[in-house]
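Sample pair:
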Amino acid sequence: MLFFKGVAMGIADLMPGVSGGTIALLMGVYKELVESIDSINLNNLKLLKNDGFTSFWKAINGNFLSLLFLGIITAIFTFSFAIDYLMTHHPIPLWSFFFGLLLATIIALKNSLSQWSPFNFLSMLLSAVLSFFVTQITPSNTEIGMVYLFISGFFGIIAMILPGISGAYILLILGAYSTVIGLIKDTLRGLTNFQIDLLIPTLTQLMVFVLGILTGLKIFSFVLKWLFKHKHDTTMAVLIGLMIGALHKIWPWQEKFDLVLTNSTKTILLPLSPLEYPGDPQFLSALFFFVLGMGLVFLLERNKKIIAPK
């Protein structure tokens, strides 16, 4: 089951606008994930020498982490082509599903706070505003080098672990999304066709990107663990706000507009009513996948509590 939860997180992380952290919250593994990543520290590494691998593996919750990350990695390498195809050829049903998923997750998580104090409510509003403006930033076309790949991995994974802020969209903003997807595709081609001349440089670049991811994961998991332990309600309010602020970004019906500035032109997306959408709104299929996304969340919520304050 953990493997398939990881697959769901991996698929979400491929989507600019959807966060793997949202899926982790939805699946009930978010807090355990943060705590397990933070447990990979020097004290537990010493167990390898003093008590052996079994004690170390148990201390870092190795079974949980390995199955979850195996699912994430499997999804990234397996579905990178499929997600690219769906985003290009069937965007409205795809975004409708994720919109329903995100909206229902917000509704389900509102009960995760022991109390909605004025401060928590304000924290939610401020994080919603922050999330909204982050998703308005125009993607850049920066040249990608090794150092920049590391930086992209570092900040991308911080966004991926935060519900509401899409790591894939942060990579778009940094101008690294197409490069990373291209590296994944080239790695698959190199492995399939045994093209060593393609595989070695591609894997080298990917490893630098992954190193940035691991560094960001370790640093940020410590911060999140502390926040969950000492500021649980405020942390959850902020996470809910981040998801609210991202809702507009995955609205299925959007139209591109070019905003002409003094020295540049900025492309913005404006959410539209399906009745005003210039193309085929595919309303029935969108409604079906929206309800499917919401139904999936409420089905999971009915069987277990997503986050329980300690």
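The chain has a mean pLDDT of 81.
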